[in-house]
Amino acid sequence: MNNSVGNTARLIGAGLRALLVLTVICGVLYPLAVTGIAQALFNDKANGSEIKDKSGRVVGSSLIGQTYNLPKKDPNDPEEAAKPDLKWFQPRPSNGLGTNSVNTRYSLILSGATNRSADNGAVHGQCTKEAAEGTLCAQVIAAKEAVITDNSTPGHTVEPQDVPADAVTSSGSGLDPNISPEYAKLQIHRVAERNELDVKQVEKLVADHTTGRTLGFMGEPRVNVLELNTALKALTKS
C-alpha cells in the first residue's frame, strides 16, 4: 500500500515538474525568442506592415485595401450608393460579403468572394448588356462603363479594351491592397487633372510605387494603392 502511494506521488511529482518545464519553454522562452527574432529581422511585417504619412501618423496597413469614397449625404442611409472620390487612385472593386448585418452598431471589415462563375449572367457564352441584374456579368459591364466614364478626361479618352480585369472584378478576399500597373496607369490622367498636377509627375509617382514580381518570377507586378495615395497626398500637400 505504501509502495503504491509512493509510486503515485513520484509520478505526480514528475508530471508537475514536466508541466513546469514545458510551460517555461513553450509558454515563455519560445514566444519570447520568436518575438525577438521577428522584431529584430522583420520589424515592419511583425507590427502589421503599417503605412505612415509624412507626419508619422499610421494611415493603414499595406496588407489591407481601403476605399476612397466621397462622404455620404446621409451617413445613416444604407441604400445610398458610395461614390468614388476621383482625386485619388481607386482600388479594385470590393464585392465581398457586403455590410455587417450581424451587429449594425459596429462597422466590421468583412472578407469574402462573390463565388460567382465567370459566365454568371452570360448570354450565349458572352457578357452583354442584357445580363440579368445582380449577376457577375452585369456587375462587370456596369463597372467597366464607370471606369471608362470616370477616367476619361478632355484630351484623353479611355477605350474599352484599355480596361484591365482587376478594374472591374474583386479579389477572392475583397480586400486586395494592390492593383495592376495597367489599372494605375489608366487612372493617371484623371488623378493629374483632379489634383492640378502635371501628367509626368503622376506617371513618375506610379512608376516609383510599382513593385515587380516577388523574387523575379512569383506573382505579377503590382501597385499598392494606399502607399500610392499616401505619396500623392504628400505631393499635393492636401
Automatic annotation (TrEMBL):
The chain crosses the membrane at residues 20-42. Belongs to the KdpC family. GO terms for cellular component: plasma membrane. This is Potassium-transporting ATPase KdpC subunit. It is a single-pass membrane protein. Pfam families: KdpC. Keywords: ATP-binding, Cell membrane, Ion transport, Membrane, Nucleotide-binding, Potassium, Potassium transport, Transmembrane, Transmembrane helix, Transport. The gene is kdpC. Residues 67-94, 151-178 are annotated as: Disordered. InterPro entries: KdpC (IPR003820). The system is composed of three essential subunits: KdpA, KdpB and KdpC. Its main location: membrane. It is found in: Cell membrane. GO terms for molecular function: ATP binding; P-type potassium transmembrane transporter activity. Residues 71-86 have a biased composition (Basic and acidic residues). Part of the high-affinity ATP-driven potassium transport (or Kdp) system, which catalyzes the hydrolysis of ATP coupled with the electrogenic transport of potassium into the cytoplasm. This subunit acts as a catalytic chaperone that increases the ATP-binding affinity of the ATP-hydrolyzing subunit KdpB by the formation of a transient KdpB/KdpC/ATP ternary complex.
